[in-house]
Here is the input.
Amino acid sequence: MVGQYDANTDIDLNDLGALDTAGASLLVELLGAERLGRSTEHPDCRISAADRALLHTVYCSLTDFCEPVREPEEAAGIQLLERIGRAVDAVWQDTLQLLGFVGLILETLARGFFHPRRWRLTPTVAHIEQTGLDAAPIIALLTFLVGAVVAFLGATVLNKFGASVFTVDLVAFSFLREFGVLLTAILMAGRTASAFTAQIGSMKANEEIDAIRTLGLDPMELLVLPRVLALLIALPMLTFLAMLCGIVGGGVVCAFSLGISPAMFLSLLQADIGIQHFLVGMAKAPFFAFLIAAVGCLEGFKVSGSAESVGAHTTSSVVQSIFIVIVLDAAAALFFMEMGW
Here is the structure.
């Protein structure tokens, strides 16, 4: 109906009731801004000043609107390089934060060394139970099975060369130097680092850490040091347990598959395996424990305040801990090999 009239035709808006933004935009589209403006300014028009202002505002918004110009998309190669650059920068920033946090832990540890009354013994013992005693069954079972698998594979391959007796040396070398500490550290990275991040992250989300600072307490002494000390104590003990269970698993396979009796197995261990292999494996345990605890606690402090952030940083702590453990283990293996230890 509106299209039957020219632009000079006046429109009677006196019977217009309530008007909202949607109605005003529809009137502007149907009647046109020029015709609508002349109708509202007519002396006989009795619509309210608020409706006039709304019509004018909607008209200005519709006339001033223009679709934003899409920016040209970058080439796929440039986008790939951009993402690689951001990832490298994120890794560098995380490394700097971890180094700074490690320094803060060492500084807090040195400061508390001269004030024994400030040590938190009860939380430390509780964390030793959680990280050490509760993890012992799964570590014992896993390393026993891995030891059995290594012995079975060694016996299968070495039997072709008539050297199946050296399966004992293979199991002992692998678990004393590498598998014992590495499997334990990876399990603790997945189990304990994630627990540390979730615990501290939940406290950060609930503003409990701010309350601790308000009370004049140091979160590093209250939350971080007990966890670090607990893992420094628990991980070497679990590593020793993993070495024993892995060798026992290999011994069981040797007894049933190769006919090597437990007495002969132990005599071969005593004759061929030196104490330095055990010390090399145990020496890596405290470094792995310290870094796993540091990464877990640091990611907990990074939580912003939502459940999604807690989950994201928990995943990040596990990934970073496992990555650091494997890289450090590879570097240590090369170092000890070059040193002839």
